[in-house]
């Protein structure tokens, strides 16, 4: 299993493509505890350390060190993955993902997100928000976008919608 932090930057968009990779890691592990105990007592798990370059809100670069628990699968005989349909897995790792599940496309019923039955398409629309929307607090002024519509297939915002277009453009482009 490959984690996003292990992917070279020039291949990042390709790695994130759900058209190319139909099956991906959901970071859910189900373990047999006696098997885990046996492996921990008899083997060295020796998990690879992943170096994840990040930056703080003030722009200061930091390094996050992590291990991919899914990489331990090689230590367990008979271990296997389970293919869960996309409609049962709605990850929220970005503001784009959050906007999708907070929109009128989904509703919460008995603790489960359900796609709106009046939606014209069964698949989930592609939502991409620009760099301005990296933090949840930046998403708050976009409440109007929560009504995305039942026929939406994709939604893209590249710039800050609260700044007039004339301010966003580079004067050297004219």
Outline:
The protein is of the alpha+beta class and 174 residues long. It is built from 5 helices and 6 strands, in the order ααββαβββαβα.
Strand residue percentage:
15-25%
**Which fold name is given in CATH as the topology of the largest domain?**
UDP N-Acetylglucosamine Acyltransferase, domain 1
Main beta sheet: strand number and arrangement?
Answer: 2 strands, antiparallel
Count of individual beta strands: 6
What is Rg? 20 Å
Average pLDDT taken over every residue: 76
Order of helices and strands: HHEEHEEEHEH
Second rung of CATH, namely the architecture of the largest domain: 3 Solenoid
Which strand order do you get reading across the main beta sheet?
1-2
Structure description:
The chain folds into two domains: 1-84, no CATH class; 85-174, UDP N-Acetylglucosamine Acyltransferase, domain 1. The protein contains five helices and six strands, in the order ααββαβββαβα. The chain is globular and about 55 Å long. The strands form three sheets. Strands 1-2 form a two-stranded antiparallel sheet. With 174 residues, the chain is of the alpha+beta class. The protein has helices spanning 12-16, 33-42, 95-102, 136-139, 165-168, and strands at 49-55, 61-67, 106-109, 112-115, 126-129, 154-157. A hairpin with a 5-residue loop joins strand 1 (49-55) and strand 2. The chain starts with 11 loop residues before the first helix and ends in a 6-residue tail after the last helix. The relative contact order is 0.10.
């Amino acid at each position: 299993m490959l984690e996003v932090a292990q992917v070279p930057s020039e291949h990042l968009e390709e790695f994130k493509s759900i058209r190319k990779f139909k099956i991906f890691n959901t970071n859910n592990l189900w373990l047999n505890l006696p098997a885990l105990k046996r492996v921990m007592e008899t083997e060295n798990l020796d998990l690879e350390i992943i170096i994840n370059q990040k930056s703080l809100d003030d722009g200061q670069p930091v390094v996050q060190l992590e291990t991919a628990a899914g990489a331990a699968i090689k230590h367990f005989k008979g271990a296997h993955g389970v293919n869960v349909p996309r409609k049962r897995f709605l990850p929220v790792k970005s503001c784009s993902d959050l906007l999708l599940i907070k929109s009128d496309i989904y509703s919460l019923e008995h603790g489960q997100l359900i796609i709106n039955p009046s939606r014209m398409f069964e698949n989930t629309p592609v939502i991409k928000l620009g760099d301005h929307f990296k933090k949840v607090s930046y998403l708050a002024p976009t409440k109007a976008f929560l009504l995305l519509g039942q026929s939406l297939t994709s939604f893209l915002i590249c710039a800050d919608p609260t700044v007039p277009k004339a301010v966003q453009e580079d004067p050297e482009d004219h």
